[in-house]
Amino acid sequence: MRVRDFLMLVRERLEPLLPAELRSFQARIRFNLLQVYYEHPSLHYEVWPQRKNGRIEIGLHFEGKREENYGWAAVLAERMPQVQAALGPSLELEEWTPTWTRLHQSMPLGSLDEDLAGEVAQRMAALIETAQPILEECRPRMQEEALALPPRPPGRGLPRYLRRRRRRLSGRRPLA
User: Three-class SS string for 80-97?
Assistant: First the structure.
């Protein structure tokens, strides 16, 4: 199956797996990934098949302004025990680029078929059901804090709740 067809199948299977209040998402397929979002595309859930390394990433990405991204990561860091209790210890909270953050897990890629699309849709639905209520609960706090705090100067160190991507590659455990 082609990647685009696989991602369309994941999207189709996702909606009925979610509770009614979470079915009103928007979705888009960009290149070789599926993005699902509620408020704004810069804060989205993502499915990314990566043939090069034989993995599929399922995650929640914060790809907006740097301060907002770090703020959302801080919110999730506070709730990581709850999130990992619901979804398992394989979830990682990390800095993805110098400005973007993400909460993600990966699984073996395998063959792009209906069975894998169903499994990926189930994992994505579980992530959305766990994370989206946290995001909605904390959105007012995030908006207040964004107005109250001055922007962080570029080049300052990472907050302690995030770990750099290169640490993951070296086999170290996440801080959160």
Answer: HHHHHHHHCCCCEEEECC
